[in-house]
Fold this sequence. Notes:
This protein has 8 helices and 6 strands. By secondary structure, the protein is an alpha/beta fold.
Amino acid sequence: MIRPVHVLNLGVALCLAMGCSSVAKRLTDPSYTGPFRTQYNHSSVGFDSLKTVSRVAILPTALPEGGLGTPQSEAATEVQAGLIAELRQDGPFEAVFYTPPKGRWLQGALELRTTEALPSQLLQDVQRQTSADAILFSSLSTYQPYPPLRIGIKLSLVRVHDGVVLWQFDDGFNAGEAPTLNDARKYLRESMGIETDPPPALSVDSPQRFIRYGVSRTVRLLKRDFQPAPSPLATTNDLQKASSGPQSKKS
């Protein structure tokens, strides 16, 4: 017969072992330690112009050139859904989805690629239907749903009243690159509660989750550019306060 004290000791030993394993993972797993993806190909006209945008119409995500298969269509749908979800979660503007009428200024297509010339009546039509200040065009530039997972995303934020491009993103995410894979696994853990194993295990085996990761990082940049830059004077003062430590009052 196993005595209760032995059961208690066994439970304590298991908890300690699990704790040590968790600490070791945090110290050695690159999804905790990095390096992480930090640089992306994007541009912005600046906060002063972006801050005037309060409502954005999101058009359907376009497919890659020549990409008419089911995987590409499903991936474009995932990008579109991810954009709407991310922008409606603490977004810098109100996001409304707009489906253009077929056979009008899009010549029968529901999507418009970010590289195409804007139809003459597009901006006015979207503004009339949605009262949006800007339109967000998106397209899937590349997609590889097998390891290493890859996805390319293009976004263009265009002001309605004059057609000026306010913000652009054009970059790819490749799970075969260590910083991107580390960053994707970190996102899965922190945002989705999904713990994955480091390589050589197949760490990211879900194309849908990898797409959501790519969209989240893209939208994070957009949200960041909608925030005012910190004042250089304020930053200097903060650094001086941090370096000097707590100050004692003089009597």
